[in-house]
Specification:
Largest sheet: 5 strands, parallel
Strand content: 15-25%
CATH topology of the largest domain: Cobalt-precorrin-4 Transmethylase, domain 1
Number of helices: 11
Shape: flat
Number of domains: 3
Number of strands: 12
Distance between the termini: 56 Å
Helix content: 25-40%
Structural class: alpha/beta
Order of helices and strands: EHEHEEHEHEHEHEHHEHEEHEH
CATH class of the largest domain: Alpha Beta
Length: 318
């Protein structure tokens, strides 16, 4: 029997679920426990197909808009990404029992935007057009109150109503380096622009990107466990590539690994996006263990102890 080749594996920590994702998933599961199936969820509760399919199997029904929800007394949950104000307003009109699972760090951005608006400032939002979090933030205020910029070129062509009355906020799952470039461009062009009291990019995004930056230059390959529609997971792959890793891939399951690419590597780093469950990391580790003799090290760059309680409606009912 041929001996398996040796593979040094650096397992990034922290990785995987953040507090906002845990809260959102717990919200759906607790609603199912208290009220039974079905529980309706507007948009994927978090961007991970494995998680979503698991909740479907327990009785969650996922919809994109409220008009897909029949008249019902069952709960309708808003996803962790946040929703425009028009969504809870529509829920109120239909007397829908709505539960908001928006991540508190996204809600923080919404409240900051409202505060700037109340103080007469137009807001510049740094983010990706069409992402549910961005759609939700844009929908907190009347049209024209928030201007979306995605690239430094967008900043250069920006035409605010009053350049001296501006504030900025950002999507919570962006690349730290890209965001810094965007903010620098905004400050250079609009020196009086007001920023958030604490930066909007969430602690989990920051910590996971920092770990990837640390490990990417010293391994042959890096795997990010996560869904292709997960913004924070996509950013981790980009950070790895920019930090010097020649082979970086985003995969959801072991079956997605392009095995021929990894045949000759001697070192591998593995991390997971903030919406990826640890069971998928374990599945991929097991798949590598079938092909290699693993020497596993934990690379810890931060400790996380953040906790967000589930929404008040469920705490009372529970």
């Amino acid at each position: 029997m041929t001996a398996k080749p040796k593979l040094r594996v650096l397992l990034c920590a922290p990785r995987g679920f953040c507090a906002g994702v845990v809260r959102a998933i717990d919200t759906v599961e607790e609603a199912l426990r208290i009220y039974g199936a079905p529980v309706y969820v507007r948009h994927e509760i978090v961007h991970n197909k494995y998680v979503v399919e698991g909740l479907k199997a327990k009785g969650a029904i996922f919809v994109e808009e409220l008009d897909e929800v029949p008249d019902t007394t069952q709960p309708v949950i808003f996803s962790a990404h946040g929703v425009p104000k028009s969504v809870p307003e529509e829920a109120d009109k239909r007397a829908i029992f709505a539960i908001d699972a928006t991540c508190p760090l996204v809600t923080k951005v919404h409240r900051e935007a409202e505060l700037h608006h109340a103080r007469g400032r137009q807001i510049v939002l740094v983010g990706h057009a069409g992402h549910p979090e961005v759609v939700g933030t844009l929908g907190q205020l009347p049209p024209g109150s928030i201007l979306l910029v995605q690239t430094p070129e967008d900043v250069e062509t920006l035409e605010p109503t009053d350049p001296k009355k501006l504030a900025y906020c950002t999507q919570t799952t962006l690349s730290l380096d890209d965001t810094r470039t965007m903010v620098d461009a905004l400050i250079r062009r609009f020196p009086e622009i007001v920023g958030p009291q604490r930066e909007d990019i969430c602690y989990a995004t920051t910590n996971r990107q920092a770990a990837v930056k640390h490990v990417a230059p010293v391994v042959d390959a890096l795997l990010v466990v996560g869904s292709s529609n997960s913004s924070n997971s996509q950013r981790l792959k980009e950070v790895a590539e920019r930090s010097g890793c020649k082979l970086a891939r985003l995969v959801l399951r072991a079956e997605d690994v392009e095995w021929p690419l990894f045949e000759t590597i001697s070192s591998l780093a593995i991390t997971a996006g903030a919406s990826a469950p640890e069971v998928l990391v374990e599945e991929i580790m097991d798949a590598f263990a079938q092909r290699f003799d693993l020497d596993v090290e934990i690379l810890s760059t931060a400790d996380e102890s953040v906790f967000f309680p589930i929404p008040r409606e469920l705490r009372k009912a529970g």
